[in-house]
Structure formats: structure tokens, C-alpha cells
Amino acid sequence: MIYYIAHWDWILKNSRFDIVKDLKDEFKITGITPVENKHFFLEESYSEVINWNYKREKVLDIKGVINLRKIIKNCKTEDLIHLFTLKSLIIFLLSSIFIDKKTSVMASITGLGFLFANTNFALLLKTILRPFIRYKINKNIDVLIFQNKSNLNEFVSYSQFSNKTLLLEGSGLNTEALKTKDSFNQKLKVIFVSRLLKEKGFYEFIEIINKKANDDRFEFYIAGSIDEGNKSSISVVELENILKKTNVTYLGEIKTDSELYKYDILISPSYHEGFSRIILEAGYVGLLCLANNIPGTKNIIEVLQCGTVVDNNNIEQFVKELDNCEENISR
Q1: Residue 236 to residue 225: CA distance in whole angstroms
Q2: Residue 38's pLDDT band (boundaries 50, 70, 90)?
Q3: pTM here?
Q4: Given strand 164-167, what is the order of strands in its sheet?
């Protein structure tokens, strides 16, 4: 039995969905996650889905930790546990206190996320957790998988992890499902695709739009949803107010494989990524990509030659690069 564990059901759906389908004939794979979004229908890929009642909106849900503890106590020696995200890893370490390790355990660190953000609260939390993580991680985790070298080095230094590490840049694309561009729109369509989080650069994108408010060469779009379980998410009221004041079209969630090709330029002012799937998709589809210069984005843009990076989320530089895109595109 393979157990996929994530603190959010979206994680077990996004990019893991196709992998599980490919493995399903050879392995029984159980997804352990809070079941929040019924439309994901995880049961279509996973052999079984266990509803882990964890409240994501809390910094730490003690009842959720206890719930996971009850689940992992029933794992057998021959089983494999695969954790996704740093938060799921930390919750797992808390849940496994005073439980003898029986199974092989690996964790995919898809980005260092909130814990390594540049905020006072994140710094305090990181300092408090460091002794516990250093004490537990080598006892409970066999393999850590990272998506870029910078994240690997930073977390290994922080946690003093000494077991096996792997570097896997992303989880690949189903290229057969992606519809590619064959031309650019006369008025260039500029899109932001992400959960609507502060750390994903949502406010920077709005600032870029406002800088180009009177420029009729561009149309601006936002694709993504509010993440009510995340303290970094904008609120419904904030989004409504922004849409009233800003010349932007809100699309909600889109199917990137069949809809992304309709747009021309992707802007990603994210502050941290493991390996940006949306930039990988956009570059393959044929969009020009403008992104904050961080690990997990620069390599993709350089290899695919699909755009440029901007240092330190400099808004004026984003605007300049946007103008360069318009000048260099042949329609």
C-alpha cells in the first residue's frame, strides 16, 4: 500500500492525479487528505480516499494532528508513506511522536512556503520549530525530494537532514492534453494564474495593471480562486473591491490545458516556488512569461527561452518588460 498524505485535497489532485492513474494497476494508492472539494472526485484515481479532518485555516489544528496519528498507527511495515508539502511533513512529524517507525517515509518539498517567508511571524515560528524538526526528521523520514537546489540547500541546513535527498525539477506535463498557441491576439491578453495569495504576488499584479491603466494595447485577466484555508489569501471583500476599481477581468479557475493558449503573456510575481508548474505550462503552450527572479522560475524560463525574469519584483521593470513584449511580438 502507498499512502499519499497532503493537508489539502487540491494537492492530491493537482499533478498527482495523472501519476496515480499510471500507478494504479500495479499499486494500491490511498489518498489521505481533508476532503473539501467534492468536484475533484479523487476516488476516480485513488484506490481509496480517507478523509483526514484537518482544518487548514488554523496555524496548527491539534485535532487534525490527532486524526492523522490514528491513521498512521495502522500502517504496516510493507507500506510506503509519501508526504506532499512542507506543512504536511511538519504535521506528520508531530503526529508521529511516540510512535515507533514501521514504514518507509518520503516527503516531497514542493516549495518552502510560509515557514520560510520574510515575515516576523514566520521567523518566530521557524525558530520555535527548529529544535523539534532537527530531533525528529532523521528518525522519521527516509527521503526528501526537492524541486530546486536552492530549496534543498536551505532546508537541509535548517533541519540538519542527513538521510537521502533527491532533486526532481517538477512532476512533468501531459503534453498531449495541452493546446498550444498558433498566433497572438491583436490586443495582448495578460494573465495571472494562481491561488489569490499575497505571497504569489497578487498585489504586485494589481499594481502592474494600475500602471498600465490607460494603455489600450493590453487586456488583463486573473485566473484562480480565493484560498479560505490560507492566512495569506485575499478575502472575498478585498477581491470585490479590487474588481470594482481595477480594469481587470476575473475568470475564476480555468482549465490551463485547454484554455491557457487563449492568452499571450503570463505574469508571475510570486515570492517563492518549488518549481513553477504554471510557468512550465505557459512556456510550453507558447505564452511569453515575466516572472520574479526566484529559484524554481528562472531555470524554466532560461531553458524554454520563453520570457524574462525581474529582480526583486520590481514593478517598474515588469512594466518595461511588458512594453518590450508588445514591441517584439509579430502577429
Answers
A1: 10
A2: low
A3: 0.82
A4: 48-51, 29-33, 2-5, 80-84, 104-109, 143-146, 164-167
